[in-house]
From TrEMBL:
Protein name: Putative MFS family arabinose efflux permease
Domain Major facilitator superfamily (MFS) profile: 13-503
Record's keyword terms, sorted: Cell membrane, Membrane, Transmembrane, Transmembrane helix, Transport
Taxonomic source organism: Pedobacter nutrimenti
Annotated compartments: Cell membrane
Molecular function per GO: transmembrane transporter activity
Keyword Cytoplasm: no
Native organism taxonomy: Bacteria, Pseudomonadati, Bacteroidota, Sphingobacteriia, Sphingobacteriales
Membrane topology: Multi-pass membrane protein
Leader peptide range in chain numbering: none
PANTHER family: MAJOR FACILITATOR SUPERFAMILY TRANSPORTER, SHIKIMATE TRANSPORTER
One GO location term (cellular component): plasma membrane
């Protein structure tokens, strides 16, 4: 078969695999992209910051069960094949996402709302635990050995691509409906759209052929009879599982989720940027950085995977705190002087009953425009108690919905771009790295577990743990960064000492 035909064939495999994986990531991450709004719908209105933390905890729950999904679907993938296993994960993911968009809010069904969402997030996590290993293995087993990093790196773009798609759909929906309708009911639309995307992907995946490597194993009667036992009871293989986790995927996971999800949460909830601005910054950063997944994946075919991945971890350890310090300083408007103000709008006064149905929360907001083109909203709130014996409680003034001037906006885009560049370094080569560690008959199971523990547990918990740490008494807004920095530093040390830059023996096309 001519090389050109083989290249065309592998790109068809990549296209079919990537579309489904992209949609699964879209489904999984859209929840995190809407965390602040979902928190206000799932929990009582007067829970404040704890509503965000509780929502991030539900978001994190989907990550925690990913390793279990890796075990369940990894075993199926090694027993019955790659194709049908990640077809099943796609159906589970799409159905769960669609149902999240239908769940009533806390005001309608009380605490049943967060409980139902939690259950569906767990199903999402299980499904994603089986998806990635299947897609990466499927593509790797079609790819020429000497180009495995290049071809599998296309699958790596889908995780960031899914985030990009989720952000894009959210921004477009909000701009079309308006802020009020989007916050009221429009936030459900991105979840409901998932069912259409999944339908298209299922149709495409049904036409895919089984991996040639698995087909050969099956025809020769060499399919593993007990993938879990062979993966984790065999001392040498289990050693590679642990090395992959602590020397690579653990550090890769925290770099991924810090540079994209925690960055978004920090800009929106700590820096108090405008909803659209925080997402536009991330969208531009993702757009500029995404091609580097393929660049670093292809480069790893030439120079090895190890030092590219470890280099991304080390740069994160060094630069995270300086970057987030810039975010804080350049978005701090608390010291604005009167001479810097161009205009202040007339006050808008709102009053609403609190959960007890007696006390009232009264807020007065003004929009402030500065001479440097920065715009923000200043809110002064007070709680008026029904009991006349209680004095009115004045809450601290809040500055939010900050729209940055163009210079600062593009500066933030550059800082996000740099963080996602580190993501491409650690993530671009890792699929090929994991595939090459394990023999074909237990590859789906063996590679899925360290990947999903590293990403689902260590990485996926970054937004929740970092936000929680920063909320502790005496903590600073930057305190949460010690978690990803510490994990990345530990993984860098372990990887430096124990990882080899040479390809292991399992370098067959499957």
């Amino acid at each position: 078969m001519p090389l050109e035909t083989k290249e065309n064939s592998i790109f068809k495999v990549i296209g079919a695999s990537s579309l489904g994986t992209l949609i699964e990531w879209y489904d999984f991450y859209i929840f995190g992209s809407l965390a602040s709004i979902i928190g206000s719908k799932l929990f009582p209105q007067d829970t404040g910051a704890s509503a965000l933390i509780n929502t991030l905890a539900i978001f994190a729950a989907g990550f925690i069960v990913r390793p279990f999904g890796a075990l369940v679907f990894g075993r199926l993938g090694d027993l019955i094949g790659r194709k049908y296993t990640f077809l099943l994960t796609l159906v589970l993911m799409g159905g769960s996402t669609f149902l999240i968009g239908l769940i009533p809010s806390y005001s309608t069904i009380g605490y049943a709302a967060p409980v139902l969402v939690l259950i569906l997030r767990l199903v999402q996590g299980l499904a994603l635990g089986g998806e990635y290993g299947g897609a990466a293995t499927y593509v790797a087993e079609h790819a020429p050995v000497h180009k495995r990093g290049f071809f599998t790196s296309w699958i790596q773009t889908t995780a960031t691509g899914g985030l990009f798609l989720s952000l894009g759909v959210i921004v477009l929906t909000k701009n079309f409906l308006g802020a009020a309708d989007f916050a009221s009911w429009g936030w459900r639309i991105p979840f409901l759209l998932s069912i259409l995307l999944v339908g298209v992907s299922i149709y495409i995946r049904m036409k895919m052929q089984e991996s040639p490597v698995f087909s050969k194993l099956k025809s020769e009667g060499k399919v593993s009879k007990n993938p879990l036992k062979e993966s984790f009871n065999h001392k040498a293989n289990f050693k590679m599982v642990l090395l992959a986790l602590f020397g690579a995927t653990m550090g890769q996971g925290v770099i991924w989720y810090t540079g994209q999800f925690y960055a978004q949460s920090f800009l929106e909830n700590t820096c108090k940027l405008d909803f659209n601005d925080s997402r536009y910054i991330l969208l531009w950063g993702i757009a500029f950085a995404t091609p580097f997944f393929v660049i670093f994946g292809a480069w790893s075919d030439r120079v090895g995977r190890k030092w590219i991945m470890l280099g991304g971890m080390l740069l994160g350890v060094i630069f995270y705190r300086p970057i987030y310090q810039v975010f804080l300083e350049d978005s701090d408007l608390s010291r604005v002087e009167q001479k810097d103000i161009k205009s202040v709008s007339a006050p808008v006064r709102t009053s609403m009953l609190m959960e007890n149905g007696q006390d009232s929360l009264i807020s007065e907001s003004r929009q402030v425009a500065l001479k440097n083109a920065t715009v923000y909203t200043k809110i002064q709130s007070q709680i008026k108690y029904a009991d006349p014996a209680k004095a009115v409680y004045f809450q601290p003034e809040v500055l939010k919905d900050k729209k940055l001037n163009r210079a600062v906006f593009w500066k933030f885009v550059g800082l996000i771009f740099f963080q996602i560049l580190l993501v491409t370094m650690v993530y671009g080569p890792i699929a090929a790295f994991l595939v090459e560690l394990f023999p074909a008959k237990i590859r789906y199971t063996s590679m899925s577990l360290p990947y999903h523990v590293g990403n689902g547990v260590f990485g996926g918990l970054v937004p929740f743990i970092a936000t929680l740490i920063a909320s502790f008494p005496g903590a600073s807004p930057l305190s949460g960064l010690w978690y990803p920095i510490g994990v990345a530093a530990l993984s860098f040390v372990i990887g430096t000492i124990y990882l080899s830059n040479k390809k292991p023996e399992h370098t067959e096309a499957g």
